[in-house]
Amino acid sequence: MSGFEWIVPVVLTVITAATPLVFAGIGELITEKSGVLNLGVEGMMLVGAVSGFIAATVTGNYFLAVGAAALAGAIMAFLFGVLTLSLMANQVATGLALTLFGVGLSALMGQEFVGEPVQALAKLDIAGLSDIPFIGPIVFGQDALVYLSFFMVIVVSWFLYKTKGGLILRAVGDSHDAAHSIGYPVIAIRYMAVMFGGAMSGIGGAYLSLAYTPMWAENMTAGRGWIALALIVFATWKPGLVLVGAYMFGGITILQLHAQAAGLNVPSQVLSMLPYLATVLVLVLISKDQSRIRKHAPACIGKIFHPAA
Amino acid sequence: MLLKIEKRAEYSRVMVYLTPIIALALTVLSSVILFELLGVNPVEALFQFFVAPLDTKYEFSELFVKATPLMLCAIGLSVGFRANVWNIGAEGQLTMGAIVGSSLFIYFPETESVFLLPAMIIMGAIGGAAWAGIPAFLKTRFNANEILTSLMLVYVAILFLSVLVHGPWRDPQGFNFPESQTFSDSADMPILLSGTRLHFGTLLAFLAVLGAWMMMARTLIGFQVKVIGEAPRAGGYAGFSQKKIVWFTLLFGGALAGVAGLSEVSGPIDQVLPSISPGYGFTAIIVAFLGRLHPVGIFFASLLMALTYLGGETAQINLGLPVAVTGVFQGMVLFFLLASDVLVHYRFRLNTARKVAP
Predict the structure, then answer these.
(1) Of A119, A141, A160, A201, which residue is the least packed, with the fewest Cβ within 10 Å?
(2) Helices within chain A (DSSP H only)
(3) CA distance A151 to B177
(4) Which residues of A are less than 8 Å from B143 in CB distance?
(5) Quick check: A94 and B159 CB within 8 A?
(6) What GO molecular-function term can you cite, just one (chain A) (predicted)?
(7) B148 contacts in A (CB within 8 Å)?
(8) Beta bridge partners of B3
(9) What is the C-alpha to C-alpha distance for residues B138 and B187, in angstroms, rounded to an integer?
C-alpha cells in the first residue's frame, strides 16, 4: 500500500475545506427555492463564525457554540427578511448591505478574540472504526459537523422533493401569486426559508472558526459566502449537486496547500487565486446554456411580493 | 395587523430626498445604543465621530482626501446600478488601476517628464476598465452573473498586487519590506493646498461628479442607461442595445475605480503597498445608494462616509473604540436607507378594515 499514504490526509483536508460550503450552499438553496435571493451569505457566515468562536471560548461547550452560530446567522437573515419581505426593499442591494454590515459587525464582536486559540472541534471515532486504514479516518473519524452537513443535504433533498412542505416551498418560489391565491402564507414561508438559510450559513461560518482553522480572524471567510452563491448556480438548484460542487471547490482550495508542499515553484498567491478563478470559470460554463438555468431556477427569484389586496 | 402597507399611485418625490436623512437619524439613534453597549458615553462618542475630526483646516482637508476614492468609485458604480448592472468589484478595479497606472513609474523610475503623471492616470483608467471588462465580456458573451464574477476578481486583483509587492516590485533598498520604492515627484499627484494632503485626484473626482451629471442628464448614452434600467423592454423597442449598456457601464465604472486606485498610490500613499484601500470600493456601494445614484447626492454621501473613516480613527485614538465601529456604522446606514425607502413607493395606513362577521 505504500506510495498512497498521501491520499488520506488530502481527502481529510478536502473534507474540512468543503464542509463550510456545503452548509452555506444548502441553506442558501432553500432560501432561493422560496424565491428569495440573499446575497448576504458572506456576512451571515462571518457573524456565525465569530459568534460560534466566542461561545466556544466563553463556555467551552461546542453544542452551544454551533447553536449560537446558527442563531446569529438566523438573526442576520431575519433582518434581511424584514427589509426585503416586509418592507419590500431590493434584494440585491439588501444582500450587499447584509454582507457589508456583517463584515463590520463580526470585526467589532471579535476584536478581543483575534489570535486567541481554541480547541479544534473534536474528531469522532464512530464505533471505534477510525483506525481502519484508509477508509477508517475518512468515513468514521470526522467531526460531528461533517456528518451533520451530509445529513442536511439528505434532509433538504427529501424535504424539497418528497414532502408537501417542500412542494409548497417550491410553489412559492415559482409563482408567489398562484401560491398566495390558493391561500399559502407566502411571506411567512419565505421568512422561514430565509432564516433556515441564515442558520446554515452561520454553522458554515462556525465550521471555519472552530474546525478548519480554529481561531478567529477578521474576514476569515475570504469570499466563501460568494463561492457558495456561485455553487447554487453551478448545481442548477439541486441539493446533491451542491454537495458535489462544494467538494470540488474544497479540492481546489486544498490543491494550493499541497502544491506548495510539493515544492511547486509558483508564488503562493497565484495558487490562492485558483478557487476564485475556478468560480468564474464554472459560472461561465454553466451560464452559457441559459435554457438550462431558466428551466431550473425558481421563477420568482429576486422578485418582490406585494399582495394586491 | 394594525398597519398595512399601501402602494402609492405615484412615487413620492419628497421621500426620495427625505429617506437618506431618516436613515441617518436612525443610524445615529442605533449607534447611541451601540456605544452604550461598548461602555462609552454616547454623546462623547458621537462628538468624536462627527465633530472632532473637522477641528482644523488640515483635518477638514483630510475629509476630501478620504472622499476622493469613494466619490470616483461611487460615481462609476451608480451609472451601472441605474441600468441594473451590478458591478460590485470596484475594489478589484481600483487595485488593478493602481497596479497598471503605477507600472509606468516602477519600470521607468528615472523619468522626469511632466507627461508621466497624466500617462499614469490614463493607464490607471485603462487598467480598471480592462478589469471590469472581464465581467462585461462574460456577461454579454456567456450570460455569467456580473455580481459574482466582478466580486471574484476582487480577490484575484488583491492577490496579484501581493505577488508584485512581495516579488518583482519590491524596493531593493527597502530592507525586504513588501513595498515598492516611493514615487518620484513627477509620479506624484500635485498637492493643491500646501500643508495638507489635498491632491489633484480630488479635482478629478469633482470632474467625475460634474461629468457624470452632464452625461446622465444631457446625453443619449445617459438616457439609454436610464431607460434600460427602468424599462428594459421599452429600451429594446427603441433599439437600445442591452449589451452595449452592460459594456459601457462596466467600462465606465472600472475606469473611474482605476483612476481612484492610481490617485491613492500616487497621492496619499506615495508607493505601492500590499494593501492600498480600506475597502473604498465596497463602501462606494453604500455611497452610491445613499446618494440616490445621483452625482450630486454621491458628492455629499462620499463626504459623509469619509467622515465615518476619520471619526473611526479619532474615536479609536481618543476613546479606545475599535476601528470596526466604522464598518458597522456604514452597514447600518445602508440598512436603514433600504428600509426607509419603502416610503418612496408605499405608505403606511392604519388598518381600518374590519373583519366581516360570519
Answers:
(1) A119
(2) 7-33, 41-59, 62-81, 91-110, 135, 144-162, 164-174, 176-182, 186-207, 224-234, 239-261, 268-272, 274-287, 290-296
(3) 48
(4) 287-288, 290, 293
(5) no
(6) transmembrane transporter activity
(7) 226, 229-230, 233, 279-280, 283
(8) B350
(9) 34
Q: Check if the interface score ipTM surpasses 0.85.
A: yes
The Cα–Cα gap between B18 and B343 comes to 9
pLDDT at position A7 is 77
| B142 min Cα distance to partner chain A (Å) | 5
For residue A2, the model assigns a pLDDT of 52
Lowest mean pLDDT among A99-113, A259-273, B147-161: A259-273
Question: Rg of chain B over CA atoms, in angstroms?
Answer: 22
Domains of chain B: 72-326 (1.10.3470)
Question: Tens of pLDDT along B47-65?
Answer: 888 888 888 888 888 999 9
Contacts of B145 (CB under 8 A, 6+ apart): A233, A283, A287, B139
Tens of pLDDT, residues A167-193: 999 999 988 888 888 889 999 999 999
Residue range B325-347: average pLDDT?
86
Cβ contacts of A284 on chain B, cutoff 8 Å: 138, 142, 144, 149
Which residues between 87 and 146 in chain A have a beta carbon less than 8 angstroms from any beta carbon of chain B? 87-90, 92-94, 96-98, 100-105, 107-108, 111
Buried b (16+ CB within 10 A) or exposed e, B31-40: beebbeebeb
Report residue A76 as a C-alpha cell. Answer: 442576520
A309 vs A118, higher pLDDT: A118
Strand partners, B4: B349
Distance (Å) from the alpha carbon of B317 to chain A's nearest alpha carbon? 16
Q: Tell me: domain A7-296, CATH 2.40.10, correct? A: no
A304 has pLDDT over 50:
yes
Chain A residues inside the 8 Å CB shell of B286: 97, 100
Give the CA-trace dihedral at A162, A165, A167, A168, to 10 degrees.
Answer: 180
- Give the whole-angstrom CA distance, residue B164 versus residue B170: 7
Residue of A nearest to B134 (CA): A280
Residue A309: the pLDDT is 46
CB pairs under 8 A between A and B: 137
Question: CB distance A88–B346 less than 8 Å?
Answer: yes
- Which three cell numbers, joined as nine digits, stand for B353? 378594515
Q: What is the structure's pLDDT at A76?
A: 96
- Phi, then psi, of A139 in degrees rounded to 5: -90, -35
Q: What is the pLDDT of residue B353?
A: 57
Q: Which H or E run includes B15?
A: helix B13-37
Please list, residue by residue across B45-68, b when 16 or more beta carbons sit within 10 angstroms of its beta carbon and e when fewer do.
bbbbbbebbeeeeeeebbbbbbbb
| CB A170, CB A162: distance < 8 Å | no
pLDDT at A295 over 60: yes
% residues pLDDT > 90 (chain A) = 50
Interval A93-133: pLDDT, tens: 899 889 989 999 999 898 888 888 888 777 777 767 677 77
Half-sphere exposure of B72 (CA within 13 A, CB side): 33
CA A215 to chain centroid:
19
- DSSP structure string for A157-207: HHHHHHSHHHHHHHHHHH-HHHHHHHT--HHHHHHHHHHHHHHHHHHHHHH
Query: Crossing angle for the helix pair A186-207 and A7-33, nearest 10 degrees?
Result: 160
Q: State the distance between the two ends of chain A, measured CA to CA, in whole angstroms.
A: 70
Which of B59, B54, B57, B68 is CA-nearest to residue B203? B68
Q: Report residue B184's pLDDT band, with 50, 70 and 90 as the boundaries.
A: confident
Domain boundaries, chain A: 7-296
